[in-house]
Amino acid sequence: MKNRKFKFYFCESVGKKPNLTYRRHFIHNKESCGFWAERRDLSRSEILANDAAGIKTALLITIGYNPAVLEMFHDLIIEDEYGKTYKIKNKPDEYNYSKGDIKIEAYEYKDNTVYGEDDIYENNATATVGN
Fold this sequence. Notes:
There is one protein chain. By secondary structure, this protein is mostly beta strands. Helices cover 11% and strands 34% of the residues. The chain is built from two helices and seven strands; from the N terminus they run E-E-E-H-E-H-E-E-E. The protein has a six-stranded antiparallel beta barrel with strand order 1-3-4-7-6-5. A hairpin with a 6-residue loop joins strand 1 (4-14) and strand 2. Mean pLDDT is 84; it is low at 125-131.
């Protein structure tokens, strides 16, 4: 059941040094406030197995199909409703490529970037990375 909202964005630089600033570029529109998703924390046995293998995964997120997430997963930062940020661990699983749900493994990420420009929101579901 997709009962949580997650915001997906990438960091975009504006200007040139010494006046370089950053802004968040969301891949969803402002009215939607993010994507509906199902969030699942790892079980204790999954956490122990990941620790033993040296893998860091904090949670599993399942969202509806979105090509922008698949194209830009390296650059995306995920923010939950509490303001915690996550990075996508590896290429999201598209299940059987039927353009259904996308399963994302994410790890906690401390976003220390200071954003000085207004945020940008997409008018449609797809976005392209641009610096």
